[in-house]
Amino acid sequence: MANVATTISNTPEKINIKDLIVAQQPLAALCTYKTGGNADFLASPTNLEQMKALLAFSRQNQLPITILGGGSNVLISDEGVPGLVILTHKLCSYHVRGTLFCAQSGLSLETAINASIENSLSGLETLGGLPGTIGGAVWGNASTHGLQLSQLIEWVDYLTPDGEIARIHRDDDRFAYKRSPFMGTRNIIYEVALRLIPNKNTSEARLHKEQSRKERMDSGQFDHPSAGCVFKNPRGKPAGMLIDEAGMKGLTVGGASISSLHGNFIINTDGTATSKDILKLAELARKAVSDRFGIKLEREIVLIGRW
Ligand SMILES: Cc1cc2nc3c(=O)[nH]c(=O)nc-3n(C[C@H](O)[C@H](O)[C@H](O)COP(=O)(O)OP(=O)(O)OC[C@H]3O[C@@H](n4cnc5c(N)ncnc54)[C@H](O)[C@@H]3O)c2cc1C
Predict the structure, then answer these.
(1) What ipTM goes with this model?
(2) Kind plus residue range of the DSSP H or E element containing 158
(3) Ligand 1: does its nearest atom lie under 6 Å from the Cβ of 259?
(4) Average pLDDT of 98-104?
C-alpha cells in the first residue's frame, strides 16, 4: 500500500487486552435511539496497535465484532450484542495535507466540518448538523442535499478481520446512493482522506455550515430520539411520502411512533420505546407501503445484535 499522508504507523506498544475490554456494558446511551441491551464486551481503542490487538483477541476467542461509531444509524437489539463491540470515538485524530483532510474513523462529523473550515478547506459544510462519525458516514455513504460523502473521498484505509491494512480509492464503483464497499464485509474503516476545496473565506463557510445545522434543528429532527430515516428512498417518491400516503403517519407501537413531521422517521416518543417496538413499527410501515404501492422499501438503519 502506498502510505500517502496516512497517520497509520506501527509504534510498538505493550498491550494488556484485559485493560481494554469491559464486560456487560449497556449500549443504549451510545446510540441516538437510546434503546437496546448490553454488549457482551466493549472496547474503545485509541490507536492502531490496540485495534489490531482487539482483532487478534476476537479471532483467538472466536468473538464476533460489531463496530459502533456515533450510533446514529443503528437499532441495537434489546437482547444485547454478542461478542466484542468496538467503539471508535477515541480514534479521532486528523491532519491536513494540502487539500486533503485526513481523519481517523471515530472523528465526529461536527469536529471534521469545524476543523476543515479552520484549515481553510470547504466541502463538508452541507453536512452541518449530521450526527455520527466519519467512519459511519463512509460506511453508509451518508448523503444530504445532493451531496454523497463518497464524492469527496480520496482514499479509505481499513483493517481486514486478519488485521491487515488495505486501501480503497475514490473511483471504487461500489459507492452508490447509501451504499459503500464496506457493507456486507467485516472490514473496519480506520482512516479516511477527503479531497476538499481551498476556501480562505472561513466566515462564509462557517455560515453555510450553521445554516445547514439550523435547518435540521428547525425541522424538528432532534426533538425525539431517532436514527434519522428508517428506509432508503426508492426511485420515484421519497419513502417518507409513501409512508404518509399509506396512512401510517402518527401510528404507534409501544413507546415508538411514526413521526408526525416526517413519515420516514420512527421516534422513541417519550423515551420508553424498546428496539422491538421500533422494528415492529418499521415492519408495519414497510408492509403498508408494499400493500398500497407494491414498493419494497429497503431499510437504511442497521440492526445490530441478537435479533
Ligand atoms: C436526526 C438524524 C438525522 C439524520 N440525517 C441523515 C441524513 O440527512 N443523511 C444521512 O445519510 N444520514 C442521516 N442520519 C443517519 C446517520 O447520522 C448517518 O448515517 C451517520 O453517517 C452514521 O454515522 P455513525 O457514526 O453514527 O454510524 P453508526 O450508527 O455508529 O454505524 C452505522 C453503521 O456503520 C458501521 N460503522 C461505523 N463506523 C465504522 C467503521 N469505522 N468501520 C466499519 N464500519 C463502521 C456500523 O457497524 C453500522 O453498521 C441521520 C441520523 C439522525 C439521528
Answers:
(1) 0.99
(2) strand 153-159
(3) no
(4) 98
